[in-house]
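User: I'm new to structure prediction. If I give you an amino acid sequence, what do you actually give back? Let's try with this one:
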Amino acid sequence: MRQIAQTKESLKSARDALEAESHEVVRVSNRLNENLVRAGKIIWRQMLLIWAVVIVLGVSYFLILQNVPVATDQAKQEGSATSSTIPKTAGQLPSAKSPAIPETEDLLKLLDQIRQAQLAKDIHMFLGAYAPTFPNLTRKREVTLNIWKKYDYLESQFQISEVVPQSDALILAKVTWNIKARDRKTDEIKNISKSYQVEFSKESGKWLIQKLRPVEGKEDLE
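Assistant: Good question. You get back a string of structure tokens that encode the predicted 3D arrangement of the chain. For your 222 residues, that looks like this:
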């Protein structure tokens, strides 16, 4: 009888343990199901957000493509209008304020002659842009040659503005030079911007520089 009682007690303990383990399995299973449902909701939210971003980007890209041809056409029209106002030469900076005066084309060619002479270090071409009566022309020649000994001109650009005819043979204008030069000894690069009030005179059918006066910038290359 004693063994039977012990057997019953053991069976009861095993049954209680099995029930407790079953309850624990059910509890863990329920928790896993809840986590899976929660993870599914998060994944769907992320997918919806991604699709929304993709749709917004697609619409924006389409609108940009629609506006690009219009902006391009406007830029072309503005560029054509600017180029038809003032004839341009190599090295000339764009200037919307330059008036459309017939003589301006000749002045641009004269300034481009100076630009080419600076890059080539051609003193005869350089002095050919100045009138024989230019004040201190000999001094101008010496200073220019000394500058060319010290520096190599890498870039030279000019802009003409405030063109005011004084007579058929005299024009006043503002000329701005932007020059990039390299020191031949140190290889240092310098960027110089200088502006002059220039007096152009017409001699023997050709426009030449009669006088000039610095108004902005410094003679950094002397």
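You can read the tokens as a compact description of the fold. Here is one thing that stands out. Helices lie at 2-85, 104-120, 123-127, 137-150.
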